[in-house]
Amino acid sequence: MCNSKNKDVEILWSHVKHREKYQKVSEAIRRKLYDWIINHQCIFPSPSMNDTLLIQNRDNPLEKIRVPKLLRSCSMRKLHNDLLAESSEGFPDAYSTDGKVIISDTALRALRALMPPNIKKYTNKYKETCGCEICILMKCFQNSLNDYRLSTIKRFEKDPIDKTRATRYRNIVYKDKLHLHDKPRDALKCIQCPNVKDFNVPHLKCILRKCNKCPKYLLNEEESKPDDERPYIKFHIFEIVPSCSIHLTQPMDAIECMQCKDLPKHKKGEV
């Protein structure tokens, strides 16, 4: 179709440049947001070595670069809540100069320009990729401990009496935004002797916990206080148990529902 307003010159609508829409989030803030999301504690690289994506280069839109795929293990709502957090872990540019939120959770979900294109959802495909039960549990425990420490820092920042308590605790467990023990193997080094020369593991006695020279794990000041002065960490372990379609959860070793045992066949539930 041609432009009907100009009778002398015919211009195809397909050649007309689209007017740029008004955007609350500038390009500079988007770049900072990219870096904040990528460095978030719930964003981690894919366990598959060759799992990469071809995306557009931010500095040169005409060029495509290959980057590793990153996985998001939390919901978008949690990511947005951390984004708006008023603590040091939040994203200050999420608010305008008058204190209004300019990055909503809907915008974070719907607008692809606000989320790095190489971040994908952490699906069951990746959860079943590798790892034995013990290793996965230890990783979950370590992640729970790291989350507890971050929440404790936020709680200490709201302490009206001791203003330096949060800073002291952060310098121990989260110095320079790095966890004291990011992975279980990092914590394991604190209770084992140094590695054997030319090997990346300690002596076999240390691995079997039969060494008398291995150091003890030292708790920091806040975590070594009496139980009534510190909150507990709740570790959840989920197991698959039998379930009746009528009476729900059954004992672990149940073959059939004990409540349905004496009922007629057509009234029994399925286990």
Report low-confidence residues grouped into runs of 5 or more: none
Q: Please tell me the overall pLDDT.
A: 80
What Rg do the Cα atoms give?
27 Å
Strand order of the main beta sheet, please? 1-4-5
The overall number of domains is: 2
User: What is the helix tally?
Assistant: 8
Straight-line N-to-C gap? 66 Å
Structural class: alpha+beta
Percentage of residues in strands: 5-15%
Helix content: 25-40%
Coarse morphology = extended
Give the number of DSSP strands. 7
H-E string:
HEEEEHHEHHHHHEE
Report on the biggest sheet.
3 strands, mixed
What features would you describe in this structure?
It is a single chain. With 271 residues, the chain is α+β, with helices and mostly antiparallel strands. The chain folds into two domains: 22-130, no CATH class; 131-239, no CATH class. Helices cover 27% and strands 8% of the residues. The chain contains eight helices and seven strands. Strands 1-4-5 form a three-stranded mixed beta sheet, with no helix packed on it. Strands 2-3 form a two-stranded antiparallel sheet. Strands 6-7 form a two-stranded antiparallel ribbon. α5 runs antiparallel to α6. The termini are far apart.
